[in-house]
Amino acid sequence: MNKATFYAILAAALYAINIPVSKTLLTNVGPATLASALYLGAGFGMLFVYLALGKNHYNKEKHLNKNDTFYTFLMVVLDIAAPIFLMIGLSKTNSANVSLLNNFEIVATSIIAFAVFKEVISKRLFAAIVIVMISSVLLSFEGEGSFAFNTGSLYVLLACICWGLENNSTRKLSEKSSYEIVIVKGILSGTGSFLVSRILSEDVPNLKTIGIMLLLGFVAYGLSIFFYVLAQKDLGAAKTSAYYSIAPFLGVIFSFIILSEKPNLLFYPALVLMIIATVIMVNDSIKLQHTHMHVHIHTHEHSHGDLVHTHEHSHEHSHSHVHGSELDNHDHFTDHLSDHNHSHN
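and the corresponding structure tokens:
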């Protein structure tokens, strides 16, 4: 395994650890408080990395300016809502379910891009979207005889929809510094979530718990993005996204190991469907990248709760979304492509 491949898998593993560890923290911490600490940890952590490496390291990146105010505001607001929804959902269902349901963000992003921005969805991506939706429906039911609806899954799906909106609405930030966006998003969205936690009168955790939450945010969001960017410099967007696509499945494994979870029977066919959908999306991504190697590509960056998302648009109807942070501009990830090549990391 070469260094770049190791970095890509490490990025996926660091992000995957977030869900099960957050699940344990939610026993003593409110959802908004935890969401706030995770984003603040990522924001201030990446600010430290930015300053430690030196501004000259990022000389070629374009910086945010006053013309980006509206889209930055929109990004921050959606990133206040999404992680709070995610943490509420995580408090109501098991972490293995939540890890898999995160893939619904791909569906939300693609459908919004199709409906609002008239982007083309390839047959392969459409098939993968349908499979993810079927899997998400299975994960939304308890499956213990009564097939009662799982309210926790609903909150996770709401979080994915918020991130899908963000992925499509922050296109104007596409060519700006990924590190700058992570820092701004982390600090401002984290502060916003903290204000929500005060409005909800959530208990303030002790200093040890605060430190753990901040460290988790830095590791699961900040360092994950950092290693993703390093990997993409050598591997390229499609291959890095392919390796990163194992994150939800690592999240499932970590949930089993850390929490000793035993999901209901519906979880397992849902898992198989998610694997099939992921393989289709990864193959679609890599094939389209090879097909359109000659096409000029620029990136659009967002934020996933994952933490920042970046959309790569190549102008020949090859459009890719990278969830989290796509390199030249990065944040958080999962891969999906279409004839408008969506690579979500």
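(Above: one complete record from the training split.) The radius of gyration is 18 Å.
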